[in-house]
Amino acid sequence: EFLQRWKKGYSDIQRQGHQITIVNVINGEYRSLLNLITRHLPFVLEGNFTIYYYPRFSQDFLKPNLIVLKDQASILGFSSSQLGEESLTHFYTDTPTVVDHYELFQSVKSKCKPVYEVCHSAVKKDFLHTLIHMETYPGDSFICIGLPFFSLRPEKFMKLLLVDNDFEIDVINPKLKLLDEFDNKLKANLEKYTYRYFFNIEEFQRAFSSEDYVNVELTMALGKPVKVTQDYLREEIRSLIIMLDTYPLLQIAICSNTLANKFSGINIWTKDSWLTLANKKYPGEGVPLAVCSSEPTINNAYFQYFDELWNTIPPLQYDKTYVKNKLYQLLIG
User: Helical H runs in 143-199?
Assistant: First the structure.
């Protein structure tokens, strides 16, 4: 009950347009980090919510907890996982103490780094460039997204799709060049590293039944909503089948919405301890917000979580013969 009230409180603050800033100390404990990222990531993707981390590991016996509502109030308490007794928490409303606590918070934040960077078409480091940058790193990857973005599409087919979505000719060629750069880096990595993709078959079936399904990843990569046709979806499936035959290190698991994924409603692409990219699966209107993290400890927590999640899937569901049969059924269904 408390967690639900906590989430609702944050949501209400965001809806009113206020900024929420959180500073965390990273202690390297996997479960602690997992709780941190699963609780906060949905708020980060709504906007007006920034998380910072202190770039030094801490194993302090006594941990301070400070919450400041600027010019209004502050809460200060201390906690310890090694003490059985509940800690005392103090609530302040007098101006000198609240101002002092705000300045203390700002001082700590100035020594910290953001856990996530925003990446979309409005800033220089956009979604597609971030994906390309991710593929410059070595290592294995987990991909948990709605529709496949990484299949190697024929350029002619992609060009027709962009024309159908009213992209200007002078925009199409540079975008195709970037997509081609991404595909080439991906193909090189697929020769050396394992890529595991959680294929949500229900998501694909929903896309097939819709006449104006928006591909979120293409929307972010290209900077405006991109609606995909059934012909496009069939081309995606054919491409996946070819990739399964071509790249032994590519693994696809047939999953459903019942998969016990802590990041339900969020698309995530994570590469070893190098980089994690996340966005909302159903963003609504316009180009959705995407964020990436390059903090190794955070990324390792993402990677370890999806490794554990993968190992909960029955081996049959990522057996290549079984997967290809399922994909063929989608093609003819």
Answer: 155-164, 169-190
